[in-house]
UniProtKB/TrEMBL annotation:
Pfam family, one: adh_short_C2
Protein name (Swiss-Prot/TrEMBL): Enoyl-[acyl-carrier-protein] reductase [NADH]
Signal peptide per UniProt: none
Top enzyme category: oxidoreductase
EC number: 1.3.1.9
Entry similarity comment: Belongs to the short-chain dehydrogenases/reductases (SDR) family. FabI subfamily.
Matching InterPro entries: Enoyl-ACP_Rdtase_NADH, NAD(P)-bd_dom_sf, SDR_fam
Alphabetically ordered keywords of this record: Fatty acid biosynthesis, Fatty acid metabolism, Lipid biosynthesis, Lipid metabolism, NAD, Oxidoreductase
Pathway: Lipid metabolism; fatty acid biosynthesis
Catalysed reactions listed for this entry: a 2,3-saturated acyl-[ACP] + NAD(+) = a (2E)-enoyl-[ACP] + NADH + H(+)
Native organism: Pontibacter aquaedesilientis
Annotated CDD domains: ENR_SDR
Length: 272
């Protein structure tokens, strides 16, 4: 159902790789809610061609950008403003990648060059996005900037390895740039900490299916889907959440507040 929550708003959406991507669902919902936006992803991801399907469905243009490259981001923000005919109201940073996870490295055996790549792609890129937006004075007042995080920033999930540190840095950047952008332009900056979700990035983490089921059994509402995450993102881009900033917002069906659930106790009792 559409409420026209984003009518007249202009945005940039990073990270739609395929139909399972959280950013894909956000783009579809943003379109439904009346937004105009450009889509972007790393040049490598473009070659898979899927994003063009989304672009067609949303009547959006695609501008390739490696989010670790300030030059690419400068080009993206200036082209986006040209295409959309004005400044930007919302930005979704839906980017994550760890070469260590991809190559199956354990936490005690990390490759440090890759660790730096993980941090650059998954966390520093968020700073770079906001740095470029600030330098170009590209954001409208009361705009909203959002990145996606995971509870491994606060708690230990062994298979999440160096992505845990990336998410901790990401959330810290949201707080610190949130202060700066709030003072400068009344722009709010938040992260959403999302349940495990069956996407390319998600299922790449070792033991994903087991901890997906575990989180589902721990959460009174079950795991939050990509679709409900998109709904939440839309509210944070809308004018209904103007005073929410510098927050890490849990979108996890209640998981983060649980100690143990009856379902998990039952599951373990059956095994022992
Ligand atoms: N899937 C989950 O379980 C889960 C849970 C919590 C948070 N998240 C976060 O949600 C976000 C989106 O991930 P997803 O689950 O939709 O998976 P996804 O694989 O669909 O999206 C990740 C995106 O990051 C992009 N990317 C990688 N390197 C890039 C670069 N250098 N420049 C620009 N883009 C780059 C990829 O092309 C891809 O589109 C990530 O930040 C992820 O950590 C995912």
């Amino acid at each position: 159902m559409s409420y026209n929550l984003l009518k007249g708003k202009k945005g940039i959406i990073f990270g739609a790789l395929d139909e399972k991507s959280i950013a894909w669902k956000v783009a579809m919902r943003a379109k439904e809610e009346g937004a105009e936006f450009v889509l972007t992803n790393a040049p490598l991801a473009m070659r898979m061609g899927e994003i063009n399907k989304l672009a067609e469905a949303c009547n959006a243009q695609v501008i390739p950008a490696d989010a670790t490259s300030v030059e690419d981001l400068e080009n993206l923000f200036s082209k986006a403003q040209e295409i959309l005919g004005g400044k930007i109201d919302f930005v979704l940073h839906s980017i994550g990648m760890s070469p260590n996870i991809r190559k199956g490295k354990t936490y005690g055996d990390l490759n440090y060059d890759w660790f730096q790549k993980t941090l650059d792609i998954s966390a520093l890129s968020f700073h770079k996005v906001m740095h470029v937006a600030e330098k170009q004075d590209a954001m409208n007042e009361w705009g909203s900037i959002l990145a996606l995080s995971y509870i491994a920033a606060q708690r230990v999930f062994p298979d999440y390895t160096d992505m845990s540190q990336a998410k901790a840095v990401l959330e810290s950047i949201a707080r610190n740039y949130g202060y700066r952008f709030g003072k400068l332009k009344k722009v709010r900056v938040n992260t959403i900490s999302q349940s495990p979700t069956k996407t390319t990035a998600g299922t790449g983490v070792g033991g994903f299916d087991a901890f997906y089921d575990y989180a589902d059994k721990m959460s009174p509402l079950g795991n939050a889907s990509a679709e409900t995450c998109a709904d939440y993102c839309i509210t944070l881009f809308s004018d209904l959440t103007k005073m929410v900033t510098m927050q890490n917002l849990m979108h996890d069906g209640g998981f983060s507040t649980m100690g143990v659930s009856e379902d998990v106790v039952e599951m373990i009792s059956k095994q022992s």
